[in-house]
């Protein structure tokens, strides 16, 4: 048996966590041989609900569940964690503008970034789920000067999985035979679900579907799926979001299937001409606990226009919270480049985030 790893979850008594934590404790995220310590974090007023959930977890008698600790603040909750799943966020209230939502979440995520910086394990891997996920991840990352921006990611795997599921249903293929879907950009209706590189049973998808179905039905369906689920259920996606969190972390830590591409919101290093430093969803491959942007995909003018539109929204979001992004971390976010051969995260001058970091001495070729 391995040594247990520490996983912090914020918003731990919320709807997504209610599905997620049972999967994590049963080994779906990190494998059936990896014991876990869950450090669950909630708002002070939700601690009783969290205690109830912890009792249920205990009652499942999961062999891999080593310890559960409950916290009403992130400074305690992030202590020594290897993984941080930032799910809790301020929901949009009645009459609240998008800008107000950005601002109120900006405060939450800047505090969380500082707490990760000060208390988490140096190698912590962070996934932001709470919306607006991409910009919240940017804020957390910019407030954590001792951590590399590449340690912060945002969830667009739900959009990726939705695209796969809906395409499987349309073509009659099993989802396992569908590959190389890409979600570009923001986790919002501006995202671009790209099927130009996708395959069904190793054959290009675009030769097997109607172009007008792709443009007029498929793309708007993926972009607006979250809203469609809220309209039908009266509640936002929870179980599918939990599954996407599992898939995102599983692939990041344990690797993607050979030849497969997944979508992750990560800091842009300028690949595909995307503005450096924003958190943008790219096609990635993962191995050895690291991700790499899949380079060299051919992008036509039509696709480029859609990638630019979602990029413009992310730049606008960044500019709206600019005053909350400390100047001291601007450079590390601008100069990041992710080395393709080794997966080592390097700045443009060839150095890493920390000269003594083992990242620099591990030079595995993919
Ligand atoms: P719930 O409202 O059910 O749960 C959120 C929980 O977070 C609440 O229990 C609340 O007390 C807690 N919380 C709020 N602020 C906190 C803070 N500062 N520290 C600790 N806990 C805090 O929401 P749920 O359905 O679980 O969704 C959570 C977030 O995920 C929302 O922001 C939602 O918009 C976002 N989503 C993101 C998705 C993505 O793909 N990136 C998809 C699903 C979901 O819509």
TrEMBL record:
Organism listed in the record: Marinobacterium lutimaris
UniProt keyword list: NAD, Oxidoreductase, Tricarboxylic acid cycle
Lactate/malate dehydrogenase N-terminal domain segment(s): 5-145
Enzymatic class: oxidoreductase
Chain sites annotated for binding NAD(+): 11-17, 105, 112, 129-131
UniProt cross-references to SUPFAM superfamilies, sorted A to Z: LDH C-terminal domain-like, NAD(P)-binding Rossmann-fold domains
PANTHER family linked: MALATE DEHYDROGENASE
GO molecular function, one term: L-malate dehydrogenase (NAD+) activity
Protein name from the UniProt record: Malate dehydrogenase
Coiled-coil region: none
Transmembrane domains' residue ranges: none
């Amino acid at each position: 048996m391995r040594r247990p790893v520490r996983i912090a979850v914020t918003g731990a008594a919320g709807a997504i966590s209610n599905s997620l934590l049972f999967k994590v404790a049963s080994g779906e995220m990190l494998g059936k041989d990896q014991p876990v310590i869950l450090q669950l974090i909630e708002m002070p007023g939700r601690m009783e609900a969290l205690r109830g959930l912890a009792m249920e977890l205990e009652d499942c008698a999961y062999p891999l569940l080593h310890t559960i600790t409950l916290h009403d603040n992130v400074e305690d909750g992030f202590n020594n964690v290897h993984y941080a799943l930032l799910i809790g966020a301020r929901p949009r209230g009645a009459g609240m503008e998008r800008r107000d939502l950005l601002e109120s979440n900006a405060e939450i995520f800047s505090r969380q970034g500082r707490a990760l910086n000060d208390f988490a394990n140096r190698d912590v891997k962070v996934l932001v789920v709470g919306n607006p996920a991409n910009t919240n991840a940017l804020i957390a990352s910019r407030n954590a000067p001792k951590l590399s921006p590449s340690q912060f990611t945002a969830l667009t795997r739900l959009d990726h999985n939705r695209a796969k599921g809906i395409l499987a249903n349309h073509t009659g293929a099993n989802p396992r035979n569908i590959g190389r879907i890409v979600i570009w950009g923001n986790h919002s209706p501006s995202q671009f679900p790209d099927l130009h590189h996708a395959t069904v049973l190793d054959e290009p998808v675009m030769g097997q579907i109607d172009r007008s179905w792709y443009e007029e039905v498929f793309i708007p369906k993926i972009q607006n799926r979250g809203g469609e689920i809220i309209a039908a259920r009266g509640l936002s996606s929870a179980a599918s979001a939990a599954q996407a969190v599992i898939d995102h972390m599983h692939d990041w830590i344990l690797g993607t299937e050979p030849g497969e591409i997944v979508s992750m919101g990560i800091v842009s290093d300028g690949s595909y001409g995307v503005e450096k430093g924003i958190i943008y969803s790219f096609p990635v491959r993962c191995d050895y606990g690291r991700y790499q942007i899949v380079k060299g995909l051919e992008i036509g003018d039509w696709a480029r226009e859609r990638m630019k539109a979602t990029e413009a929204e992310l730049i606008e979001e960044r500019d709206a919270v600019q005053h909350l992004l400390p100047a001291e971390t601007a450079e590390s976010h601008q100069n990041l480049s992710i080395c393709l051969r080794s997966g080592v995260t390097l700045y443009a001058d060839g150095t890493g985030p920390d000269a003594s970091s083992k990242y620099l001495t591990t030079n595995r070729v993919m």
